[in-house]
UniProtKB/TrEMBL annotation:
Subcellular localization, as worded in the UniProt entry: Cell membrane; Membrane
Matches recorded under InterPro entries: ExbB/TolQ_transport (IPR050790), MotA_ExbB_proton_chnl (IPR002898)
Domain MotA/TolQ/ExbB proton channel: 74-161
Membrane topology annotation: Multi-pass membrane protein
Keywords associated with the record: Cell membrane, Membrane, Protein transport, Transmembrane, Transmembrane helix, Transport
Family named by the database record: Belongs to the exbB/tolQ family.
UniProt entry tagged with the keyword Cell membrane: yes
Protein name per its UniProtKB record: MotA/TolQ/ExbB proton channel domain-containing protein
Keyword set includes Repeat: no
Superkingdom in the source lineage: Bacteria
Transmembrane segment boundaries: 26-47, 91-112, 124-154
Length: 173
């Protein structure tokens, strides 16, 4: 694959994405932002280690009880950051379908407004509003479902790590 074909493919993808957003109307921009924010939070899963056991602050000059306490504090801070990111994904997965519903209502209002202005005998008038309504609904549901699945698996992984650390004796109090 040459550089020119890659650039052409990226350009076509960008054009298709902007056309899809244009069909959905103004509500697609917050949905797109919601999707990007969720992807950023999901990247935290990939680039931050799942194994929180790497956080060990053992220093040879401190007594064992102090090392254990420092480890517990460091683990608690790491868990809190992971759970904070997880809560962001959960929130975005709840907001996305509501934004899709807002787009549905906006599309139906646009359809009825155009029908009142031009009459309902023209199928193009009706189909534009219905298309706007369905695209935003589909996008909101897709983003919400993806986020809910991501949050579910992320929560399970964090719970598993926390159980392992409890067995080891390092607990985030």
């Amino acid at each position: 694959m040459t550089i020119n074909s890659i650039i052409y493919s990226i350009s076509q993808f960008e054009h298709s994405l902007l056309a899809f957003i244009d069909v959905g109307g103004i509500v697609m921009w917050p949905l797109f932002g919601c999707c990007l924010w969720m992807l950023w939070l999901a990247s935290q899963i990939v680039f931050k280690s799942y194994d929180l056991s790497y956080i060990r602050t053992t220093t040879p000059t401190c007594p064992d009880w102090l090392n254990h306490r420092l480890d517990s504090i460091a683990l608690r801070q790491a868990y809190q950051q992971h759970y904070f990111d997880l809560q962001g994904v959960k929130l975005l997965s709840m907001i996305a379908p509501l934004l899709g519903l807002l787009g549905t209502v906006s599309g139906m209002i646009a359809m009825f407004t155009a029908g009142a202005d031009y009459g309902f005998h023209d199928p193009a008038v009706i189909s534009a509003g219905i298309s706007m309504a369905m695209v935003t609904t589909q996008t909101g549901l897709f983003i919400g479902l993806s986020g809910a699945l991501l949050a579910f698996f992320w929560q399970r992984k964090l719970n598993k790590i926390q159980r392992i650390d409890l067995v080891r004796g390092y607990h985030a109090e």
